[in-house]
Amino acid sequence: MTRANPDCKTFVSLSIAHPSICHSVLQGFDKLTVLRGSVRLLRPCTSFYQSYSPVTDKPHHQTVERIGIDESGKGDYFGPLVIAAVFVDATTQGELTLMNVRDSKKLSDGRILDMAPDIRTICPYSIIAIGPQRYNELYAKIRNLNRLLAWGHAKALETLLDKVSCGRAIADQFGDERLILNALQEKGRTIVLEQRHKAESDLAVAAASILARAEFLLRLKRLSEEIGTTLPKGASPGVELAGRMIVKKHGEERLGSVAKLHFKTTQSVLGKID
């Protein structure tokens, strides 16, 4: 641990008046989860609080209530498309900062799966998972990935807004924001949507990225077990090989139950079947 959060006394129900004492207290626990004035131990994770390095973008925005949205699986041939939305306020922001929440792309799969349950515990959230079969049906109708993403983002926002009241949302820049806003307005929802490049630098979006990736990993593992073949992430040559094995074992029709068929990988898979 290089440095403890001097403000952790705000969130931990212990009389801690000095950062050095806070440092020793945190070192004494394998893992802390701070839930509005209480401290409890969860499963061991000795490196969880190695350092205090909060995700920052615009400091004056970081204290404003907001919903962060992010997706996972967009570039993965196998598995679902998952969109997660996370509501963050002043209290949960401090808790997520203490947890060192950051963009899921900077975390290992193990760390993602470890952090996700804690984020779900402290933050209101929604997760929309579109399995491969449903994804293929929607893509056949929509014929545009950005529109499909917008539909998923709007659905995640709509679901979360049933639980919390919030007027501002942040998402990564992937297309015309009107695609999301129009989808929301059809459901009678209005919200100020801020789309940014590298939106994961915002703490709420980073938390959403972790929830989305964790759900993707869990569902990809489940699909692997159901099909009897390990389904790799991404769209590498190993992915193509796994696709060929699935077609040989189960037939071309089964591929659509585990893969996003509009990827060019599908042509490679089907074109190399003996």
Q: How would you describe this protein?
A:
The chain has 274 residues and is α/β, with parallel strands linked by helices. It is 43% helix and 14% strand. The protein is built from 10 helices and 7 strands. The strands form 2 sheets. Strands 5-4-3-6-7 form a 5-stranded mixed beta sheet. It has a two-stranded antiparallel ribbon with strand order 1-2. Strand 6, helix 6 (178-185) and strand 7 form a beta-alpha-beta unit. Helix 3 packs across helix 7 (203-227), helix 5 (145-161) crosses helix 6 (178-185) and helix 8 (237-250) packs across helix 10. The radius of gyration is 21 Å and the shape is globular.
Order of helices and strands: HEEEEHHEHHEHEHHHH
Shape: globular
**What is the multimeric organization of the chains shown?**
single chain
Helix amount: 40-55%
How many DSSP-defined strands? 7
Number of helical segments with 4 or more residues: 10
The radius of gyration computed from the alpha-carbon positions, rounded to a whole number of angstroms, is 21 Å
Main pleated sheet? 5 strands, mixed
With strands numbered from the N-terminus, the spatial order across the biggest sheet is 5-4-3-6-7
Q: What structural category do the secondary elements indicate?
A: alpha/beta
Overall average pLDDT: 78
Query: Which stretches are poorly predicted, pLDDT < 50 over at least 5 residues?
Result: 1-63
- Strand-residue fraction? 5-15%
Distance between the termini: 55 Å
